[in-house]
């Protein structure tokens, strides 16, 4: 139970962290896209501004009556805009400043002469892209020019990298803080549940312990009365029923006490080197009378020497529980087969029956405490169990690091397999 609470706390913390991480990723992606758009817009605005600077310088020089082409060229050549390359083209798309321009930029100038203004990009070397704004303008002197401003997009990538690193660092810090705080809050939130479960476990253990004595007394007195009653009659039938129910209640109480102790970790599990085939053989002998009364054939289908490290008493109980269930759910005339095999991965116990089977929707619940499927309920008093056997079997398998699995088909039968780890 303590391990289950710890696992629940870890799972809650993990889910909280994953949820926060997903929220951070979504918000971060949205924020990054928004900031990226703003940065790109800022770059485009700066390119428009640089092109406008070229246009103003050209217009001012013409207004100063420096209308000679060379003087206009000199005026533009003297301009300096940080991290921007400036160009000036004439009305035919020929470069004026500088005297030569890349062909892709000249093509953009010709496009601007037609369309007034264009944005264009050009990859020059790997991982480097140039972005340009090219705009046609007419000076107040009536001359038509094309101004162009070019920037390297690497500055955008630098800003993106800075943004990503900053946000990533903040997100990582937030996740670490949340993991610490979330673990603390989860522990606090799970404490009431743990206290409740611990109280229920203690109650179950105490109740089972207190019930043992009166049930034992009831059973003993019924046995004594039956031994003294030499004449069959109504009293004898009643006493037989009382004895039967006392035995049944005693088994339930013993199972409840075992589960309570297992939940509390108070039931020690021995680790001895035993042979699964020997334990299974003893369990078959113990279950044989039950099979005979039920009219079921109990057979050993195959035996191989299979060493395991286990608690002999618990291992015997595990096999008996599975055999008992198989016999109970097999109609008279049916059969139950048991086999033990040694594989490369470890020992395997397999018990198959020709019983009523289990529907697929019930398979997921058969290991739950007090669960009895529709088949068990429909068969009524013939089944005296309380739905605790497979829960105990599951606990015993887990305590030994074994895996228990059930395959079943209604009307055909059921196969229960228990795979034990190999002995090192």
List keywords for this structure.
10 helices, 5-stranded mixed β-sheet, alpha+beta, single chain, about 425 residues, 12 strands
How are the SSEs placed, and which strands pair?
Elements: H1 2-63, H2 69-77, E1 85-89, E2 95-97, H3 103-115, E3 117-125, E4 128-138, E5 144-152, H4 154-228, H5 234-264, E6 272-275, H6 276-294, E7 297-303, E8 307-310, H7 312-328, E9 335-343, E10 346-353, H8 360-363, H9 374-378, H10 389-399, E11 403-409, E12 413-419
Parallel strand pairs: 7-9
Antiparallel strand pairs: 1-2, 1-5, 3-4, 4-5, 6-8, 9-10, 10-12, 11-12
Helix pairs in contact: 1-2, 1-4, 4-5, 5-10, 6-7, 7-10
Please give a structural write-up:
This protein has a 5-stranded antiparallel sheet. Strands 7-9-10-12-11 form a 5-stranded mixed sheet, with helices on one face. A two-stranded antiparallel ribbon has the order 6-8. The protein is α+β, with helices and mostly antiparallel strands. It has 10 helices and 12 strands. The model is unreliable at 376-383 (pLDDT under 50). Helix content is 58%, strand content 20%. α6 runs parallel beside α7. It has helices spanning 2-63, 69-77, 103-115, 154-228, 234-264, 276-294, 312-328, 360-363, 374-378, 389-399, and strands spanning 85-89, 95-97, 117-125, 128-138, 144-152, 272-275, 297-303, 307-310, 335-343, 346-353, 403-409, 413-419.
């Amino acid at each position: 139970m303590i391990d289950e609470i710890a696992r629940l706390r870890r799972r809650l913390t993990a889910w909280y962290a994953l949820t926060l991480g997903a929220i951070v990723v979504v918000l971060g992606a949205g924020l990054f896209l928004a900031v990226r758009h703003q940065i790109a817009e800022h770059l485009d605005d700066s390119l428009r501004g640089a092109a406008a600077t070229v246009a103003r310088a050209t217009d001012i020089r013409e207004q100063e009556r420096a209308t000679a082409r060379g003087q206009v060229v000199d005026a533009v050549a003297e301009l300096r805009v940080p991290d921007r390359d400036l160009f000036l083209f004439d009305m035919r798309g020929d470069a004026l400043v500088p005297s030569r321009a890349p062909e892709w930029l000249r093509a953009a100038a010709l496009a601007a002469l037609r369309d007034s203004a264009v944005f264009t990009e050009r990859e020059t070397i790997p991982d480097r892209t140039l972005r340009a704004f090219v705009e046609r303008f007419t000076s107040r002197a009536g001359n038509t020019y094309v101004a162009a401003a070019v920037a390297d997009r690497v500055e955008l990538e630098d800003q993106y990298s800075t943004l990503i690193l900053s946000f990533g660092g903040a997100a990582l810090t937030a996740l670490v803080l949340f993991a610490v705080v979330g673990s603390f809050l989860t522990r606090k939130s799970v404490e009431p549940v743990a206290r409740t479960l611990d109280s229920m476990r203690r109650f179950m253990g105490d109740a089972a312990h207190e019930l043992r004595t009166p049930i034992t007394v009831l059973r003993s007195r019924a046995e004594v009365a039956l031994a003294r009653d030499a004449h069959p009659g109504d009293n004898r039938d009643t006493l037989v029923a009382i004895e039967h129910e006392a035995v049944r209640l005693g088994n339930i109480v013993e199972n409840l006490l075992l589960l309570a102790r297992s939940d509390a970790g108070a039931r020690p599990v021995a680790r001895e080197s035993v042979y699964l085939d020997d334990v299974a053989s003893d369990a078959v002998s113990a279950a044989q009378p039950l099979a005979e009364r039920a009219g079921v054939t109990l057979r050993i289908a195959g035996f191989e020497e299979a060493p395991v490290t286990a608690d002999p008493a618990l291992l015997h109980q595990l096999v008996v529980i599975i055999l008992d269930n198989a016999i109970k759910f097999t109609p008279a005339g049916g059969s139950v087969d048991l086999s033990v095999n040694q594989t490369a991965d470890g020992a395997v116990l397999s018990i198959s029956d020709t019983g009523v089977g289990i529907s697929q929707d019930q398979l997921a619940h058969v290991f739950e405490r007090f669960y009895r499927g529709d088949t068990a309920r429909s068969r009524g008093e013939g089944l005296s169990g309380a739905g605790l056997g497979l829960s105990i079997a599951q606990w015993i398998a887990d305590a030994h690091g074994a895996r228990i699995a059930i395959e079943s088909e209604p009307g055909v039968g059921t196969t229960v397999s228990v795979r034990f780890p190999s002995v090192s």
